């Protein structure tokens, strides 16, 4: 695997080329940088892009490394993202058998059974939070889908919530949509961008000029939110 060195940080990176790619894109993972490019792009062009994005690459690599060093402990006071805001975790013991999660203002309260063994504590908190987040995502994202579909005069079919590292949404030729539930952690406008993006694929199943014009018709500042996911997408996790 190749490496790019930025301020004494040796960052592994892999190249992916395909005729499906229309432009050069960078994606940061916990263990490497991925550079995706059309087949016709030269090695020099690829290196020029890497050099021009050195600041972004270093920033996001360090964020990934910090997250690896500081695992979530699921203790009182930790913060979790929700709709672009931070919620503070509060764990409470209560006399019931099943964990429950409630949001009260900026506090995310997790109720745990009093007799739960300590070694099972973190796993139960995480599981309860996942259930809560996915339930919120289904409600919020479906409401947004219906609202934007009505404005855009398009019809979608089946909707599935998935969890993927770098894909926030997708649309099939049959009009079926996949949405990454983790976008519920992003600001409202960022969620709107992903939904408008995927609904625009119901008219243009590609990333042509016409496709982006349609996205821009319903979200004039889409470029800002497109970049936002590139810069902050890795933060949408726990």
Instruction: Tell me roughly what share of residues is in helical segments.
Output: 25-40%
Q: Order of strands across the widest beta sheet?
A: 1-2-4-3
Number of self-contained structural domains: 3
Total strands: the figure is 11
Approximate strand percentage = 25-35%
CATH topology title of the largest domain: Zincin-like
Query: Spans with pLDDT under 50 lasting ≥5 residues?
Result: none
- On the 0 to 100 scale, the average pLDDT is 92
CATH superfamily membership of the largest domain: Metalloproteases ("zincins"), catalytic domain
C-alpha geometry: globular
- Report the order of strands and helices: EEEEHHEEEEHEEEHHH
Count of helices?
6
Q: Distance N terminus to C terminus? A: 28 Å
Quick one: biggest sheet?
Answer: 4 strands, mixed
Going by helix content, strand content and strand pairing, the class is alpha/beta
Could you give a short description of this structure?
With 238 residues, the protein is α/β, with parallel strands linked by helices. Helices cover 39% and strands 25% of the residues.
